[in-house]
Structure formats: C-alpha cells, structure tokens
Design brief:
By secondary structure, this protein is an all-alpha fold. It is built from five helices and no strands. It starts with 8 loop residues before the first helix and ends with a helix.
Length: 77
C-alpha cells in the first residue's frame, strides 16, 4: 500500500477480523476477575489466619513469583 492511498479490501477485511477477535489475555482476565476479587477481599478484610492461607496458597501455586517477575520485568523496561 502506497502512502495517501485508501486501504485495499483485503487490508480492511484483516483489520475487521482482528478487531472482532478477542485477545486471549483479555478473555482470561475476565474469567479470573471473580477469583482475584475473592482473594483481594480476604487479603483486605480477612483475619490473619485467612490472609496467611491465601498467601501460602499463592506461594505454593507459584502465582506470586510469576507476578513478581512480571512487575520486575516492567520496571526494567
């Protein structure tokens, strides 16, 4: 496509398809909203035993380590 020319039908169709295809990460995040809300509620308002249980679960599961890596990766960028 040359500058100042309208996009071809093929380009427009690809753009339309891409806009309609949901991002997998967005879908996954939407499905995990309830779980995240649940854990945040416990961490914010639960007693010390409940908070410790959530932290232990997330440590054993490796989720906190993955989150830490993501956060550190963003800071380094």
């Amino acid at each position: 496509m040359m500058p100042n020319q309208p996009p071809t039908k093929e380009v427009l169709e690809k753009r339309r398809q891409k806009a309609e295809a949901p991002d997998e990460r967005f879908e996954e995040a939407c499905h995990k909203l309830d779980e995240a809300e649940y854990y945040l509620d416990i961490l914010a308002f639960g007693d010390s035993y409940e908070r410790a249980e959530v932290v232990n679960y997330l440590l054993v599961d490796g989720r906190l380590d993955k989150l830490k890596e993501k956060i550190n990766g963003r800071d380094a960028a």
